[in-house]
Specification:
Oligomer: single chain
Strand content: 25-35%
CATH topology of the largest domain: Rossmann fold
CATH architecture of the largest domain: 3-Layer(aba) Sandwich
Number of helices: 16
Length: 681
């Protein structure tokens, strides 16, 4: 058993923009806590968290890394996450495993794109948030202005819990000890602001504060945790991971003020499916049934598949029997690990709040719930909202015979990364990989070639258009085939009607009187799905429609599954052609960072690509963030255009927004190309 209790555990994730120094900060925390003998550096490629060969070559994190260490009377589980927008999925996944998100800000660069996004995601998950301003010893740093900018951006509840002193060489506490001098502001003023903010969540304490004029730190602990849970307070800490200033103080903040698993907001578990799902409260009690959530999957070339999970309830013990989701067959916990970067340290038990891993359990997947009793069946965590991967490449193996292995490897990469996706398009015979950006795709391709030794050819993929309908219609098919012996017979009548954008697909069985035997209804739906997945007018998947099967006929001898599959497929094609078919294209939100002098050029470029500008925001003294919406089809060569317009000084990111109808000319072109291709076959 662990030599610490759940109350002693702290779980934190370092999140924020790339190059803010999160990995260096993690390294400094490990060294100060005595978990490592000496501090490594990203430049030398010897940090605990950036251990992957690709991370070492790129000089920044590509995936979330886990470490744990003891400080004073606490045990801290820390997750170091990548900061570049292309690897956002790894950072979002980590939010499901912690009580506290530490938003790391580069004091020199200020509040950057991913910083704003991570704060938004952390608050959406109702996590307690703290801000760590790193690199306070860098040149040309204006900390008072940065603090003011933090408060303008994230709210007045962002208050310093410590302040730099002696020209950034020391840190003075503003919460427990109101005495001392700082480089800016007043320690006493900062202390008073903190106390005022904290006591606001407790009326009785407010009255006592007004009566006494002062409140002890012990009296403030419970309301402090409440203020964190309600996001009424976001503490701001100052640190330099590089020279060690503020590292001890940050560890003390974790130990003394960060919530333990009994003090943070309850994880958003649900019991049941769909609209019938109700909230389920997991209790961080080691004596209760086990409930754990898999927030990360690692495919280790030596150990195999690892499911990394956070224990929310009960105690996970080595040799225990655990169920996965709603599965009926348990697996044995043969090995139980704590993760320390690339090292797997065996342990005999994990208590609520602990983060650990099990190996070689093939059924484990990302977002799975592990439990030890069927009382916990149908429990799942409220899904995390990941950005939709839109950047794509069509890939194929150079060596014939490697196709199956390619699919297997791509599936492994999907398991590891919730924002990486493989698609197979039968109409074009394309295998397409999609990621959040060009860098994201490049790292996956390098992993395929370096780790898995797959040689690939790549090309731009077809745009992921969709087909849908604009009005209601009916379809019918009588499938009758006689081949000398047993025949085939199935007849299907169905109706289709449009659904709102993004609603997907619904299949409704309204057959009465057994005219289509119940046993053949799945075959009808199978035929319908075959047609919709393959596309009807242009070879793209169909969505946003409801299919209602209401009548049909069968034959006592000749009706078979294959007959109703065929009848269902042809009936939906018949209906689709009458329902005003339309083509949809993906629209993406685009965020462009470029020097202010190029804003006019950016606006014109977006307009030329059928896009709309939705806003601009001053990111720094000379840089503007321009946001808008653009059809994905127009961004094929945008990286090169941006580089040309801004002289290499611009960067951008995209995330899926919605599907919208394509121009009539585009639809005509797509349908004509599809028809011509079918005629050639």
């Amino acid at each position: 058993m662990p030599n610490y209790t759940t109350e002693a555990i702290r779980t934190v994730a370092l999140v924020g923009h790339g190059a803010t120094g999160k990995t260096t900060l993690a390294e400094a925390l490990l060294a100060r806590a005595g978990a490592i003998k000496s501090t490594g550096s990203v430049e030398r490629g010897n940090t605990v968290c950036d251990y992957d060969p690709l991370e070492k070559s790129y000089g920044h994190s590509l995936s979330a890394a886990l470490v744990n260490f003891a400080w004073r009377d606490t045990h801290i589980h820390l997750i170091d996450t990548p900061g570049y927008p292309d690897f956002t999925g790894q950072a979002i996944g980590a939010l499901a495993a912690v009580e506290t998100a530490i938003i790391v800000i580069n004091a020199q660069a200020g509040i950057e794109l991913a910083t704003r996004r991570m704060m938004k995601w952390a608050q959406a998950r109702k996590l307690c948030c703290m801000i760590a301003v790193n690199k306070i010893d860098a040149e040309n740093v204006d900390l008072p202005e940065l603090l003011a900018d933090i408060q303008r951006t994230f709210g007045k509840e962002c208050l310093p819990i410590n302040l730099p002193a002696h020209a950034g060489k020391d840190i003075v506490d503003c919460f427990f000890n109101p005495d001392g001098e700082s480089d800016f502001s007043s320690v006493k003023t900062a202390h008073a602001a903190l106390v005022d903010q904290v006591v606001e969540v407790d009326e009785a304490l407010t009255a006592l504060y007004l009566e006494q004029g002062e409140i002890s730190a012990e009296q403030l602990h419970a309301p402090f945790e409440k203020a964190l849970r309600e996001r009424h307070l976001i503490p701001v800490c100052f640190v330099s991971a590089r020279n060690g200033t503020g590292v001890t103080e940050l560890l003390d903040v974790f130990a003394r003020l960060a919530p333990n698993p009994t003090e943070g907001n309850a994880p958003p578990f649900l019991k049941g499916e769909g609209a019938d799902a109700v909230e389920f409260h997991a209790e961080p009690d080691p004596a209760k049934h086990v409930l754990a959530h898999v927030f990360k999957v690692i495919i280790d070339p030596y150990v195999g598949k690892l499911g990394v999970f956070r224990v929310h309830q009960g105690t996970v013990k080595r040799d225990a029997q655990l169920f996965i989701g709603n599965g009926n067959r348990p697996f044995k916990v043969a090995h139980l690990y704590l993760l320390q970067g690339k090292e797997y340290v065996e342990t005999d038990a994990l208590v609520p709040g602990d983060i650990g891993a099990v190996a070689k359990v093939e059924e484990i997947e990302f977002d799975a719930v592990l439990h030890d009793s069927h009382d916990e069946d149908h429990i799942h965590l409220r899904p995390l909202e990941f950005p939709v991967p839109m950047h794509g490449l069509a890939v194929e193996t150079k060596k014939k015979g490697d196709e199956q292995r390619l699919f297997e490897v791509l599936h492994k990469l999907e398991l590891e990364d919730p924002c990486f996706r493989m698609e197979r398009h039968p109409a074009t015979n394309e295998t397409v990989i999609r990621a959040l950006g060009e860098l994201h795709l490049r790292t996956k391709l390098e992993k395929l070639t370096q780790q898995y030794k797959l040689e690939l050819e790549t090309r731009p993929p077809r745009i992921p258009y969709r087909e849908t309908i604009s009005r209601k219609a009916e379809g019918h098919c009588r499938h009758k085939k006689q081949t000398g012996g047993a025949g085939q017979f199935g007849e299907v009548f169905l109706k289709i009607e449009p659904l709102p954008r993004g609603a997907g697909y619904e299949f409704v069985d309204q057959v009465k009187g057994g005219v289509i035997p119940t046993v053949f209804i799945p075959a009808v739906e199978k035929g319908v799905r075959m047609a919709l997945d393959a596309g009807v007018i242009a070879g793209y998947p169909v969505e946003d429609l409801r299919v209602i099967v209401y009548d049909g006929k069968s034959h006592a001898v000749d009706s078979k599954e294959i007959a109703f599959v065929s009848a269902g497929r042809k009936a939906i094609i018949d209906a689709f052609s009458k329902a005003g078919p339309i083509m949809l294209e993906p629209i993406v939100n685009i965020d462009i960072d470029a020097p202010e002098t190029y804003v006019g050029d950016m606006t014109a470029e977006i307009a030329s690509k059928r896009g709309q500008i939705t806003g601009t925001q001053q990111r720094s003294a000379d840089a503007i963030s321009t946001t808008g919406q653009v059809p994905l089809a127009e961004l094929t060569d945008f990286q090169n255009r941006l580089r040309s317009i801004t002289g290499g000084q611009g960067s951008y990111s995209v995330e899926f927004s919605h599907y919208a109808q394509v121009p009539a000319q585009t639809q005509q072109q797509l349908t004509s190309q599809y028809k011509a291709a079918r005629e050639e076959e």
